[in-house]
Amino acid sequence: MEERSAPETTNDTPEKPPAEKSTQPQEQEIDSKLKEIARKKAQLRTEGEKLIADKKKLEEDIKKKGRVLAIREKRELEKKAAEIEEKINKVNEEIKSADGEEELLLKEAGGR
Fold first, then answer.
1. How confident is residue 5, by pLDDT bands cut at 50, 70 and 90?
2. What range defines the domain where residue 60 resides?
3. pLDDT value at position 28?
4. Does 11 map to a domain?
């Protein structure tokens, strides 16, 4: 009896991957992007919480010192509070952007 083996694959004969394998890298890419977005959002939330705490502390310092605080010093603290507020807004915008990107990726992944 003669044994038959599968024909050798050469460079001339391209392998045709099953349909599943062609979508697998895309799914992995989407998963990795989603994980990256989740990490970024967690970092942004942590940064936002820290900024909010810093702003609250500044506002408490302003209240505690009250009239004793020199006008110039009070303005400096208020300016710092405003800068922190800007940073908080930027962090919130980045989180919102990441949420939108995450939503698009989830829709793309769900459509397959």
1. low
2. 36-110
3. 85
4. no
pLDDT, average across residues 60-65: 80
Number of domains in the chain: 1
Question: Considering only CA atoms, which of 3, 78, 17, 90 is closest in space to residue 48?
Answer: 90
Residue type, 39: R
**Does residue 100 form part of some domain?**
yes
- Is residue 10 situated within a structural domain? no
Contacts of residue 44, defined as CB under 8 A and 6 or more positions apart, other chains included, come to 91, 94, 95, 98
Give the global pTM: 0.59
Find out whether 69 and 62 touch, Cβ atoms under 8 Å: yes
Query: Is residue 3 pLDDT above 80, yes or no?
Result: no
In a domain, 103, yes or no: yes
